[in-house]
From TrEMBL:
Gene3D superfamilies: HIT-like. Coiled coil: none annotated. Residues 39-108 form the HIT domain. It comes from the Bacteria. It holds the Pfam family HIT. This is HIT domain-containing protein. One of its GO terms (molecular function) is catalytic activity. InterPro entries: HIT-like, HIT-like_sf, HIT_Hint.
C-alpha cells in the first residue's frame, strides 16, 4: 500500500492503551483493562485499515508478530483461551487484539466488548503487568 501520509497512532488507541514494545512491523500496546491480559498490535503502516492493505511481506510479518504476542500472553498468564481479532468498527486504523480469556473472567464466555466496564490499571498493577510481559518482546 502506498501511503500519502505518515503513520500516526489513532488517538483513541493511544488513549485506551499503554506502550509495551516496538516490533519490526507493529507497536505492541497493553489495553488499559485489568479484567484481561489484553494486547493490541498496531502495524505502523499509514492509512492501513484492513489486512488486505498490507503487502504480502507485511502480512507475513504481522502473523509472526501476532504469534509472538499470543505466545507471550499464554506463557505469562496461562489463559484457558486466546481471542485474536481485528475488528476496527470504532477505530478504523488496522489493529489486532490478543486477549487472554479464562472461564472466570467477567465476560466469559461472551466477547469482551460491551460486557463489563473496563477496569483501568492502578499504577502499581500497570508496572507489574508491563514488567511481566516485556521480557517476551526483548530482542
Amino acid at each position: 500500500m502506498t501511503a500519502s501520509r505518515p503513520y500516526v497512532l489513532d488517538p483513541r488507541l493511544a488513549d485506551d492503551t499503554h506502550p509495551l514494545a516496538v516490533l519490526p512491523l507493529c507497536e505492541v500496546r497493553l489495553m488499559d483493562d485489568a479484567n484481561y491480559p489484553w494486547l493490541v498490535l498496531v502495524p505502523r503502516i499509514a492509512e492501513a485499515r484492513e489486512l488486505i492493505d498490507l503487502d504480502p511481506d507485511q502480512r507475513r510479518q504481522l502473523t509472526d508478530e501476532l504469534d509472538r504476542a499470543a505466545r507471550a500472553v499464554r506463557a505469562a498468564f496461562q489463559p484457558y483461551k486466546l481471542n485474536v481479532a481485528a475488528l476496527g468498527n470504532l477505530v478504523p486504523q488496522l489493529h489486532v487484539h490478543v486477549i487472554g480469556r479464562n472461564r472466570d473472567d467477567p465476560a466469559w464466555p461472551a466477547p469482551v466488548w460491551g460486557r463489563v466496564a473496563a477496569r483501568p490499571y492502578a499504577p502499581e498493577d500497570l508496572v507489574e503487568r508491563i514488567s511481566r510481559l516485556a521480557p517476551y518482546f526483548e530482542p
